[in-house]
Design a protein that fits this description.
Dna Topoisomerase Vi A Subunit, Chain: A, domain 2; 4 strands; alpha/beta; single chain; elongated; 6 helices
Length: 136
Amino acid sequence: MSTKLKEKEEKIQRIIAALTEESAKGKPIIVEGKKDAQALRELGVNGKILTVKTGGKSFIEATAEIEKLGAREVILLLDFDRRGKEGTERLQQNLERAKIKANTRFWRELHAFVGREIQCIESLTSYLKTLQEKIM
């Protein structure tokens, strides 16, 4: 049992390491709220992180804010719940209309490993801690 948990934990850590690397290269990460951004910081992501659902921002306003950054590609990492999935799709369409590549690879990979167990990015840190405790 713990071998499967260890493999799962290692795969999640690899995804986070790759995310951190992409962020360090200058690709902004788009999350829903401040707690999601804080969770990524706790996991070691130091690059630009934008929130799309703080201050009552609409997706159009969020897209305009992303356009101002001048980034050609952003990483979408919204929550795994129904609203997060819908938001990811809508934001992806808006960004593509603005000629900005919306990278959803990390979202898809994380969702494959934790999507049934956690609903939001902010839960990722506590989920990993619990996983590590179960392994020991």
